[in-house]
């Protein structure tokens, strides 16, 4: 079996969510550890004051990429910024960009998602489910595609006591829900949201579960793997220890508790805080694509699912915070 760097040699890779926390680390890892990679295409939403290329250039100037720039000064030449808005029809890709991606891409990493727990159901469906569906449809047209990696969450099925590495039946048919949202007004959607999500805690976990089913059903002819990380935190080793670019999630809690700002928190002291460093998740994701790619003709046709967690082997409890 060929090595991971050899697998990526000469490949064109597409990343969604590359400007997000995990997406940045994935981009850095691929460029640094797989120097033979041909190009990395990143879908970037244009902003009023910045073109996609300018957003990517600004991102590449941050400290996360210092080691990469030192080891590979010409790495930026492998980056291709593609203007896209995932919440729009056909991902708001121009005809030229669609054709370019269809003709060029070998591997897709779909990392983009809204991770806000209090997102409205309509907005969460738009980015986590409908955009994923559109990405799968685009991938089906790619002439050279070897593997499609969908980044989900270990909490997509948090209403289950034991979570196996399988795609579970959804609580509702995603296609019917998408159709219903087209005629419902926001007030009605908000009113029925608690009933729809049922025993899941929020729209994030609910829509990520629906997205997995969409990937399985509508991407049945693709070579797909799903990676389910738990609570993603600061880097362990790569490209250096402790890198984080936001105070969301556990990092914000630890900083606030350490500074004495956060003195109380409603939680069970014995509950496992299933934290996992972002570089561990990224290494897992890169390896999942490699394994699925090199074994695409010999492995079973069912979707490979990877639960990327630490709670079972190295549990950390919320009572240990602070």
From TrEMBL:
<dbReference type="GO" id="GO:0102965">
    <property type="term" value="F:alcohol-forming long-chain fatty acyl-CoA reductase activity"/>
</dbReference>
<keyword id="KW-0560">Oxidoreductase</keyword>
<protein>
    <recommendedName>
        <fullName>Fatty acyl-CoA reductase</fullName>
        <ecNumber>1.2.1.84</ecNumber>
    </recommendedName>
</protein>
<comment type="similarity">
    <text>Belongs to the fatty acyl-CoA reductase family.</text>
</comment>
<keyword id="KW-0472">Membrane</keyword>
<keyword id="KW-0443">Lipid metabolism</keyword>
<feature type="domain" description="Thioester reductase (TE)">
    <location>
        <begin position="15"/>
        <end position="284"/>
    </location>
</feature>
<dbReference type="GO" id="GO:0008610">
    <property type="term" value="P:lipid biosynthetic process"/>
</dbReference>
<dbReference type="InterPro" id="IPR013120">
    <property type="entry name" value="FAR_NAD-bd"/>
</dbReference>
<dbReference type="GO" id="GO:0005778">
    <property type="term" value="C:peroxisomal membrane"/>
</dbReference>
<keyword id="KW-0576">Peroxisome</keyword>
<keyword id="KW-0521">NADP</keyword>
<keyword id="KW-0444">Lipid biosynthesis</keyword>
<dbReference type="GO" id="GO:0080019">
    <property type="term" value="F:alcohol-forming very long-chain fatty acyl-CoA reductase activity"/>
</dbReference>
<comment type="function">
    <text>Catalyzes the reduction of fatty acyl-CoA to fatty alcohols.</text>
</comment>
<dbReference type="InterPro" id="IPR026055">
    <property type="entry name" value="FAR"/>
</dbReference>
<dbReference type="Pfam" id="PF07993">
    <property type="entry name" value="NAD_binding_4"/>
</dbReference>
<comment type="function">
    <text>Catalyzes the reduction of saturated and unsaturated C16 or C18 fatty acyl-CoA to fatty alcohols. It plays an essential role in the production of ether lipids/plasmalogens which synthesis requires fatty alcohols. In parallel, it is also required for wax monoesters production since fatty alcohols also constitute a substrate for their synthesis.</text>
</comment>
<keyword id="KW-1133">Transmembrane helix</keyword>
<keyword id="KW-0812">Transmembrane</keyword>
<dbReference type="GO" id="GO:0035336">
    <property type="term" value="P:long-chain fatty-acyl-CoA metabolic process"/>
</dbReference>
<dbReference type="InterPro" id="IPR036291">
    <property type="entry name" value="NAD(P)-bd_dom_sf"/>
</dbReference>
